[in-house]
Specification:
Elements: H1 2-6, H2 14-20, H3 28-43, H4 51-56, H5 66-76, E1 80-83, E2 86-89, E3 92-95, H6 100-121, H7 134-139, H8 146-156, H9 163-170, H10 186-191, H11 208-213, H12 227-233
Antiparallel strand pairs: 1-2, 2-3
Bound molecules: zinc ion.
Length: about 250
């Protein structure tokens, strides 16, 4: 199991996969943070930390105790640790008298921070700097059969096996066999290749993450549409998510 989770994974996009499935429940980093939040809820008070020690804990050199570790991790995930039991997330200060629903708040924030990290590292997740809208991203699944859901998973985890990837990994020819374009990457198939079937109306504008991986970034689905976009989309009555109606 450990090898499976932490071993060298050159050929599979392990990071997006684990974050993608079950809202990240299998991601080792989220598991670690869940343990840490739960531990702090149960045992944090017994550390009896002075306000002064808490203030300087993250700057202490060399020896890393549990308090330093906790504080540094919170900061890394954009959670502001004001006091041992008073943390700030997205402009909201939460009294970390951690009930399970509050742990979920911190985990959701942590998961979005991990998506944000991927957005900075991987081209096809650009636009997800603030994380992923889980509900909107998964809305389309309901309309698909099992086989198409599997394809959707491959696309959403940025795992489509293209000639460009075969070239990088195995030294195979990287060009597109359909049109001979020198770079047969996923972008080519989405944007250019004549072999890809397309809607006559063309693709609506949107962030890269939605275009290439079908993932909806946090805050995108609730953005108000312009009048032209409204007419173009012709949303069914009551639909709040314009992306699912194209
Ligand atoms: Zn092509």
């Amino acid at each position: 199991m450990a090898t499976c989770l932490f071993g060298k994974q050159h050929n599979r996009p392990i990071l997006p996969s684990l974050l993608h499935y079950a809202e990240g429940r299998f991601d080792p980093e989220l598991t670690r943070m869940a343990r840490l939040y739960t531990y702090w809820q149960r045992h944090g008070q017994s550390f009896d930390i002075s306000a002064h020690y808490w203030d300087i804990a993250h700057e202490l050199p060399a020896r890393r105790g549990p308090v330093q570790l906790l504080k540094n991790l919170l900061r890394e995930y954009g959670i502001e640790p004001l006091q041992p039991f008073l943390w700030k997330v997205d402009h909201t200060t939460i009294n970390v008298d951690l009930t399970p629903d509050k742990i979920n708040t911190f985990l959701r924030h942590t998961r979005n921070a991990l998506w944000g990290k991927l957005a900075r590292e991987r081209e096809y997740y650009r636009g997800m700097e603030k994380g992923r809208d889980e509900q909107s991203t998964h809305a389309i699944r309901e309309q698909l059969d099992e086989k198409r859901r599997a394809y959707l998973d491959i696309i959403q985890t940025d795992a489509v096996y293209t000639p460009a990837r075969a070239h990088l990994r195995w030294g195979k020819q990287g060009h597109c066999p359909k049109c001979n374009n020198p770079t047969g990457d996923w972008k080519h198939y989405v944007d250019q290749c004549h072999a890809t079937p397309r809607h006559a109306a063309g693709n609506p504008p949107g962030p890269d993450c939605l275009r290439y991986t079908g993932t909806v970034p946090t805050g995108y689905a609730s953005l108000p549409l312009s009048l032209e976009q409204r007419q173009f989309a012709q949303r069914p009555q009551g639909c709040r998510h314009h992306h699912c109606c194209y």
